[in-house]
Write a structure and sequence with these properties.
By secondary structure, the chain is mainly alpha-helical. The protein has one domain (about 5-215). It has helices at about 10-20, 50-70, 75-95, 95-105, 115-130, 135-165, 170-190, 200-215. The longest helix is centred in the last third of the chain and has 27 residues, at about 135-165. The radius of gyration is 17 Å and the shape is globular.
């Protein structure tokens, strides 16, 4: 494993902490009663579909934590087994977005469905690229890291809007700035160490396209 990425699994733990903070008001803070709405946009009550989405998303984040740690400690067989399990978990994760998207489409703000729709597309794209490059470890690892940004976006958006009290557009804009800064930082880090930084360029371009489309349709 590349030296600069040996602690990737530990860095992914930050995503867990941010997710708990971001989704505390709309989900984790409601355990075990779940009496309030899952999202301020759709005002829909929490259903079995929301629970399923949380479980599958949590499993994916767990994969992002465990997989680099398994590589670091030489547990290649377990790493490959989990990789095969992901072939089942990932389609279910994508399908779990559908009820959430439908609930937003039925709300007073159907345009906000662009968030989960685009997140689904990003996940499919980067996971597909990771699988395609599964025998090219550097590329595979970077595209898998790319899938993490699909979870980071809505998490930071909720922190900005629900916790910091930022207006939705400002919160969304802040998310893009943070994502761009992280990706640019990773590109410079890889360039400095002579590593293959092109996957991060692809991820950055996709995020720029995503933001561009958002501004065109809103």
């Amino acid at each position: 494993m590349e030296k600069a990425y040996k602690n990737t699994g530990y860095f992914m733990l930050i995503l867990v902490l941010l997710s708990i903070i971001g989704f505390y008001k709309t989900y984790f803070g409601q355990i075990p009663d779940f009496n309030e709405s899952f999202t301020a946009i759709s005002h829909s009550g929490i259903t079995i579909f929301h629970h399923l989405h949380v479980v599958l998303a949590s499993l994916w984040v767990l994969f992002l934590i465990c997989q680099p740690l398994l590589i670091r400690h030489g547990k290649f067989k377990i790493h490959k087994t989990i990789g095969k399990i992901s072939y089942v978990i990932f389609p279910l994760l994508i399908l779990s977005f559908i009820p959430l998207i439908l609930s937003i489409l039925k709300s007073d703000f159907p345009g906000r469905s662009y968030g989960p729709i685009s997140n689904s597309i990003l996940l499919v794209l980067f996971y597909s690229l990771a699988v395609y490059n599964r025998k090219r470890t550097p590329k595979h690892m970077r595209y898998m890291i790319g899938t993490a940004f699909a979870f980071l976006g809505p998490t930071l958006g909720r922190i900005g809007n629900l916790i910091l009290g930022l207006q939705p557009k400002i919160a969304d804009g802040s998310v893009y700035v943070i994502v761009y800064l992280i990706l640019i930082g990773l590109i410079f880090l890889d360039r400095k160490q002579g590593k293959n930084y092109k996957p991060y360029v692809v991820i950055l371009v996709v995020w720029v396209i995503r933001q561009t489309v958002l501004y065109i349709i809103t």
